[in-house]
Amino acid sequence: MELLIFYPIGTLCVFLALGVVLNKSPIGSAMCLIGMMLGLAAVFAIQHAHFIAILQVIIYAGAIMVLFMFVIMLLNLKGDDTVWKTREGNTLLTGLGAVLVVGILYKMTEITGGGEFDSPTPIQETFGTTVKVGTTLFTDFVLPFEVASILLLAAMIGAVVLAKSKMDD
Amino acid sequence: MLEQYIGAGIMLLVATAIACGMVLLTSILGPKHQFPDKMEPFECGESQLVSPRQRFSVKFYLVAVLFVLFDIEAVFFFPWAILFQRLGVFGLVEMFLFILILGVGLAYVWIRGGLDWE
Amino acid sequence: MEHIPSPTVDLVSLAPVLVLSVFAMMVLLVDLYVKRDKTLVIFISLVGLLMTAISAFAKFDLPVHSFNDSYVVDELSVFFIMIFTLSSALAILLSIDYNKREGIRMGEYYSLILLCTVGMILLASSTDMIMIFLGIEIVSICLYVLAGIRRSDPKSNEAALKYFLLGAFATGFLLYGMTLVYGATGTTKLGLIAELIREEQIASKPLMLMGIVLLIIGFGFKVASVPFHMWAPDVYHGAPTPVTAFMAVGPKAAAFAAFFRVFAEAMPVLSPSWESLLCIVAVLSMFIGNVGAIMQTNIKRLLAYSSVSHVGYILIAVIAKNSLGSSSLVFYMLAYAFMIFGAFGIVILIGRKENEMLEIADYSGLAYKHPLMAISMSVFLLSLGGMPPLAGFVAKFYIFSAAIKEGFVTLVVLAVLNSVISFYYYLKVIVYMYMKEPEGEFQISLAPMTVFVVVIAMVGTAGLGIFPDPILYFTQH
């Protein structure tokens, strides 16, 4: 039953992700990205990771996409600039890249195909709920939680230092 | 397992149906005269003065970045708020420290003029 | 509504992090109210680093594990904290005159260095992959900003942008690797992972292997090893020189500490699967770093490529994965700190306001005009090459003996061969200084703080080379 929901959403996500890469206009790419983020949120929800699903919507589909949109607008794309410019294809490099990708995929399937995967362990009823995530975050992972604030502080300083338009000194 | 999502599923369906239905209904029922003024982008009844495709000021970027940072900060409040009573004093102290560090960040951004428009 | 029991919090273990974070925030806020003269800010930063170094000794009976096994105070971390505080203090001292000369007046510079050091301490003391990730992110974000702090200089902008784009990409690899390892073991704690591997209770070996490969890519980028070194020359070149020196020592040492903890301490049993990969990376780093350095005409790029080759030598310590490996790792990083800060100190001294004098040709005839400076530069360069009796030689010697003990003879032979190659480009600079006619005028103003750093570096380089025993004793006990 879960698979019945997973496969359509998963396929949709893959196509939207392709849309991000192949879309001719940046705005179109960004729209596809939003769709893909929402699809991912749904996938998380199916996997009982409710809290992560919410985060996916709030942070990625919300905040980070706003940032992307701003950047697209900052770039001031006019007329034909609204279409991505691609570099002239270098056949040799493309060929080498393709060989590399095929090689990696082959090796990956070889490694994963040869191994044995245990059947997934059944998860508890409370897994992935906000209560459960919170309990772990505020007890076992209290140090990473506090350290995250230092990370955010560093990012804040960085944003002001690099992006503030007028620095008097 | 999936019963819990039935409500959300129905809501999604109804919302989609309403949205699509409205577009569909207006295109079926609405009058279809076309004249030049109607095709203009709407700007308070005036024809537009400048192209809307203007470069955004870089100031927006700083605002957006700060928004993302505080948004991430806010996310930590959800589980904390839910567990507030059960965590007791420890949770309070924890969150206080977290906010304190980010408060220093906010104070810095504020005094440095990161929130000023000019 | 049952109460959630509070976890035990060991603030004493965390003392260095706490002290330095408080000082970093203090510097940040104080800077808002001092306008031109940054002496007070610099003074607070240095006091903070000193206090941090002292507070690292707050715990006895090492190792002490705390925070549910995600943080550890052991000999390795204490020694690394010493290296970090030393390198950050030297970087700040180097910056004083440089920043005045180049017009870098942002006080955030100093708080970013302190915050970066906080990240490095966390990185070296963490035994939990989530903490390692957070540490790496704090360090990286501070470095991206520090690299681009000269906002009006296109080179600095290029450095920051390149570093950020590639760094963010590499962080993705690292995180993906961590997720796969978590998927295979069900835990992020390195101690538990080690236990599960020993008892062969990994849920899925393929996942684990793919995780390991991705971790190598992620860490490989952060320490600038070949083939993930492409960013290093451009970033080292574009960043302000004190930041370059800082980048080449502190964050690199921190990344190596985490590298060592993840691979040598948590996954020694799985070493057959990662050893050969790391060997390849190490050998490639040495060769490509050295060959790249030979072709450079810019001193900062030369030192960048030479640092890539040094990463190759240091990786041997991780591959050796014995206790001698960890002590030789810290010894090497300490010696490397002195050599690099000395060399970059001279680079800063030779530059002047309009012309930073970064071409190797600019060094022509330095020995005739400023013999002392030429001698010090030669000492640092020869030490980097591994000339006895200087620090670089002892450091390399200990790493190689750690590897020989584990039977990596071919690797060590290749490394020695590379040390010989590296003399070619170090000697090239020395030849310019001693055997060429001066091309232009040197206008050197001996900035007191920079000279002070060079003197410290000199004492360190010579001292560690001639009397390595006390430090070695300390690293091994």
Principal-axes shape call of chain A: extended
Main beta sheet of chain A, described?
A: none
Structural class of chain B: mainly alpha
Q: Unreliable runs of chain B, pLDDT <50, ≥5 residues?
A: none
Distance between the termini of chain A: 62 Å
Number of helices of chain A: 6
Helicity level of chain B: 55-70%
Please identify, by name, the CATH architecture of the largest domain in chain B.
Up-down Bundle
Largest sheet of chain B: none
Count the domains of chain B: 2
CATH topology of the largest domain in chain B: Methane Monooxygenase Hydroxylase, Chain G, domain 1
DSSP, total strands of chain B: 0
Multimeric state of these chains?
Answer: heterotrimer
Q: Supply the CATH superfamily name of the largest domain in chain B.
A: NADH:ubiquinone/plastoquinone oxidoreductase, chain 3
Task: Report the sheet-strand fraction of chain A.
Answer: under 5%
3D architecture notes:
By secondary structure, chain A is mainly α. Chain A has helices at 2-22, 26-46, 50-74, 91-114, 130-138, 142-163. Chain A is built from 6 helices and no strands. In chain A, helix 1 (2-22) packs antiparallel against helix 2 and helix 2 packs antiparallel against helix 3 (50-74). Chain B is mainly alpha-helical. The model of chain B has no long low-confidence stretch (mean pLDDT 84). Chain B has 2 domains: 1-33; 56-118, Up-down Bundle (Methane Monooxygenase Hydroxylase, Chain G, domain 1). Chain B has helices at 6-29, 36-39, 59-75, 77-112. Chain C is mainly alpha-helical. Chain C folds into 2 domains: 12-169 and 237-257, no CATH class; 272-477, no CATH class. Chain C is built from 19 helices and 2 strands. Chain C has helices spanning 15-31, 39-55, 75-102, 108-125, 129-147, 154-185, 190-198, 205-222, 231-238, 241-266, 271-294, 299-320, 323-350, 366-369, 371-385, 391-405, 409-435, 448-466, 469-476; strands spanning 64-66, 71-73. A two-stranded antiparallel sheet of chain C has the order 1-2. In chain C, strand 1 (64-66) and strand 2 (71-73) form a beta hairpin. The longest helix of chain C is centred in the middle third of the chain and has 32 residues, at 154-185. Chains in contact: A-B, A-C, B-C. The interface between A and C is large, with 30 and 47 residues.
